[in-house]
Amino acid sequence: MTKQSGTTGAVLGAATVAMGLIAGTFYVFACAVMPGLARSDDRVYVEVMRNINDVIQNPVFMLSFLGALLLTGVAAWQGRGQSHRRWVWAALAAYALAFLVTVAFNIPLNNGLDTAADPAAARAEFEDAWGVWNVVRAVLSTVALGCLARALLVRGRSYTSEYLASAAGSRASR
Q: What's the Cα-to-Cα distance from 62 to each of 11, 28, 43, 67, 84, rounded to whole Å?
C-alpha cells in the first residue's frame, strides 16, 4: 500500500467520472437533444445547433472532454504491470476513437453548419451524418466507461488481496 497506489486509484477514479460525464453528454444528445430538434423547422434546427455548438465550447465541458482522454492516458501509464491495466488500455483505445470521431467528423460538420447560408440545405447535409457519428462516439465512450469501471473493480480486488496478504504476513511473523 504505497502512496502511489492511492494516487493511481484517484487518477483512475477521476478518469471514470470524466468518462461518465462525456458518455452521458453524447447519450443525451442521441436520445433527447437530436430527436427533439428533429421536430423543429429548418431555421430553428440550424439556429439551435449553432447555439449549442457555441456554448458547449466552455471550460467545464472541455475539462471533461479533454480530461477523460488525459486522465485515462495517465491511468494507463500508472497501471502498467498491474492487474487492471488491460481494462484501462481498452478504455483509452475506445475513447481515443471517440475523440477522433469528434475531431474528424462532428466538429467539421459543426463548422460547416456555422458557415451555411441556406438552413434547409445546411440541415440536409448536417443532421443525419452528425447523428450517426454522435451515436458512434456515444457507444465508444460508453464502452470506455464500462472498461474503466471494470478496471476500478479489478484494481480494488487486487488491492484488497494485497492488503489481506500483508496483514496475514504481519500476524504470522509475530
A: 18, 17, 28, 7, 27
